[in-house]
Design brief:
Shape of chain B: elongated
Largest interface: A-B, 27 and 26 residues
Low-confidence stretches of chain B: 85-95
Mean pLDDT of chain A: 91
Order of helices and strands of chain A: EEEHEEHEHHHEHEHEE
Number of domains of chain A: 1
Structural class of chain B: alpha+beta
Distance between the termini of chain B: 53 Å
CATH topology of chain A: Rossmann fold
CATH superfamily of chain A: P-loop containing nucleotide triphosphate hydrolases
Helix content of chain A: 25-40%
Oligomer: heterodimer
CATH architecture of chain A: 3-Layer(aba) Sandwich
Radius of gyration of chain A: 17 Å
Strand order of the largest sheet of chain A: 6-7-8-3-9-10
Structural class of chain A: alpha/beta
Chain lengths: 224, 424
């Protein structure tokens, strides 16, 4: 029996500005099971980032239905969505998006603040996750004291800290040299082995190869 | 069950406190990241709060000093001045008309002495140049009767006051205030027996009054007293008076005495309509009221200006916070993406604004008190820290923080996480 984590039904997203309407996603339906490792591939402008934003509950589709763990998400209000993102989804961005003023440990602990975890538990959990990504000696470093690969690993630790159902990674290796990229992908692979569901966006075949399933997208449509 | 309930409640409070501390902590950190900018933003509030405190405190102090000085002039005192004070049409200022004479004063004394009056003091006062050797000063010359001393609570540090003999003999003698002594003779010199020149006539100093303190409009230490007869005949060449002070037996009789003396004087001046009176009678309370209403108007005006600078400071805070929101768009996007609710973002930026204004309030109070202290030394005002002023300043500062911080905070919270994350 497969365990369905995410179900997209006929998702369409249209961006409008004063002059033109752009159909970023065109009637996409998709099922993602628990413990999958998926790479979404496509050229720039294909709609893959939009898809990830919708999957990550950062954006709402123009029409369609999105079930997360069987719950309809499109009717949820902003606070519920914020809670969902906080507890169920871990984000990893191309530009790491660490807060420069605070140390690695606090960066990792940030989602726990919003989850209402007390300080002692926050730091314990954050440190544990830093250890998992191999940065236990860097807890007291500021982001600008770390290499790109290290920063991205801090970002992964941050994504993991609240024990989410799914990790969404938007070109996580886009800013990294190939040896660093490989390290990051190894971490993702291990996480997936432990049962984490992972979806990543990439336009590099090399990276996509790490995933178990590849979804190709072009002009807002899934093409495989 | 109950126990459990209260446990979860304290847990909630603890959680909230922890959360609150975290937000404040972050706010402090991000403010420290831009020390100069934060400092400049705070400066506006500091200046605003400091000036409000200085203005309110100075106003209060000057009010107090005027009150105490007027009280020290003697309570239970009615003062008759030539010319009218009120009524609609344009009139000359009180004191400028020539309508009161010595015989008016003596007639009032004869009529009311046993009924209401303790004593009566006719006065003629002008400003004039006073010279001692090479030193000179421009000061108030008052021609008086001996009764002036008792009615106005004048004490002498040395010598004697003007006597009846001095009046009768039209003697060229003078009693000087300590300020005049300081200006003409230098501090610590006893001038009794020395000769001074007033309006070109020489006078022998026979006494020095004890310092009453005070400054500005009502400096009682900057005066020279001469016999009334000498002032009228020798100095100013007039038969008129500039005021008549009347000591009333009992404070309860003040209003009654004022009315009766008023009608008596009207009859003497052959005036039927009280509104056409060529003199006015004021009690100490009236004078006090006039003087304090003038200073309080002044204080209000200055405080208003200070409040405007506070408003400008608040706009400065809003400006800085708006810049911070734009600068930290990515940060806001990230925070929202990882689960920060809108109210958390609002709380974060609002607390930064409030911390800025409270800091401004704190330093504003300190600077305000320092400036006020310096001014009180220079202006010889009493140094009374006005607690209501400080309370007001802190309240206003926090209100400004909330009001001017709310819009930027709301703007930050309303950013869409993807737009914010894309922002370069």
């Amino acid at each position: 029996m497969t365990d369905v984590l995410i179900e997209l039904k006929n998702i369409t997203k249209i961006y409008k500005n004063h002059f033109i309407e752009t159909k970023a996603l065109d009637n996409i339906s998709l099922k993602i099971n628990r413990s999958e490792f998926i790479a979404i591939m496509g050229p720039s402008g294909s709609g893959k980032s939009t898809l990830l934003h919708i999957l990550g509950l950062l954006d709402k589709p123009t029409s369609g239905e999105y079930l997360f763990e069987g719950k309809k998400t499109l009717q949820m209000d902003e606070n519920t969505l914020a809670d969902f993102r906080n507890k169920k989804i871990g984000f990893v961005f191309q530009a790491y998006n660490l807060l420069p003023r605070i140390k690695a440990l606090k960066n990792v602990a940030l989602p726990l603040i919003y989850a209402g975890v007390d300080k002692k538990n926050r730091e314990e959990k954050a440190f544990e996750k830093l250890k998992e990504v191999g940065l236990k000696d860097y807890a007291d470093h500021f982001p600008n004291q770390l290499s790109g690969g290290q920063q991205q690993r801090v970002a992964i630790a941050r994504a993991l800290v609240n024990n989410p159902s799914i990790i969404l990674a938007d070109e996580p290796t886009g800013n990294l040299a190939s040896f660093q990229a490989e390290e990051i992908m190894k971490i993702f692979k291990n996480l997936n082995k432990e049962g984490k569901t992972i979806i990543l966006i990439t336009h590099e075949e090399e990276i996509a190869k790490w995933a178990k399933r590849i979804i190709k997208i072009k002009d807002g449509k899934i093409i495989n | 069950m109950k126990n459990n309930d209260s446990n979860s409640k304290t847990g909630e409070i603890k959680k909230f406190l922890d959360y609150f501390l975290e937000i404040v902590n972050e706010a402090v950190f991000s403010l420290l990241a831009n020390k100069i900018r934060s400092g400049l933003a705070v400066l506006g509030i500091i200046i605003g709060i400091a000036s409000v405190i200085v203005m309110l405190s100075l106003g209060q102090a000057s009010q107090k000093s005027i009150e105490s000085q007027i009280k020290s002039l003697g309570s239970n005192l009615l003062t008759i001045m030539p010319g009218a004070l009120s009524t609609g049409t344009v009139r000359q200022a009180a004191g400028s008309a020539n309508t009161l004479t010595l015989s008016d004063a003596l007639a009032i004394k004869n009529e009311f002495l046993n009924k209401y009056i303790i004593d009566i003091s006719p006065e003629l006062s002008r400003r004039s140049q006073v010279i001692f050797e090479r030193a000179n000063t421009n000061t108030q010359i008052i021609g008086v009767y001996p009764s002036y001393q008792t009615l106005r609570n004048i004490n002498l540090s040395s010598g004697d006051f003007i006597s009846q003999f001095d009046i009768e003999g039209t003697r060229q003698v003078a009693v000087v205030g300590p300020q005049v002594v300081a200006d003409l003779f230098g501090d610590g010199v006893n001038p009794v027996g020395k000769m001074i020149r007033i309006s070109g006539k020489s006078f022998r100093v026979i006494g020095v009054t004890l310092a009453k303190g005070g400054a500005g409009f009502f400096n009682q230490d900057d005066m020279v007293f001469v016999p009334l007869s000498t002032a009228q005949k020798l100095l100013f060449g007039t038969d008129y008076l500039s005021s008549i002070s009347i000591g009333i037996k009992d404070e309860k009789l003040m209003n009654q005495a004022r009315d009766e003396i008023g009608y008596f004087l009207l009859a003497r001046h052959k005036i039927n309509d009280p509104y056409q009176a060529d003199f006015s009678i004021m009690s100490q309370a009236d004078i006090l009221q006039t003087a304090t209403s003038v200073t309080s108007t002044f204080t209000n005006l200055l405080s208003g200006i200070a409040a405007i600078s506070l408003l400008v400071g608040g706009i400065g805070i809003m400006n800085i916070m708006l810049v911070a929101v734009v600068e930290r768009t990515r940060e806001i996007g990230l925070r929202k993406a990882i689960g920060a609710k809108n109210r958390v973002i609002v709380g974060q930026f609002l607390s930064e604004a409030i911390i800025l204004t409270l800091l401004g309030g704190f330093f504003g109070i300190i600077f305000g008190i320092i400036i006020y202290f310096i001014l009180s030394v220079i202006l010889k005002f009493s140094f009374i820290i006005s607690l209501p002023a400080i309370f007001l300043a802190v309240t206003v500062a926090s209100i400004i923080g909330v009001v001017f911080g709310y819009y930027p905070a709301k703007k930050a919270a309303s950013l869409s996480p993807i737009e914010a994350l894309r922002y370069e």
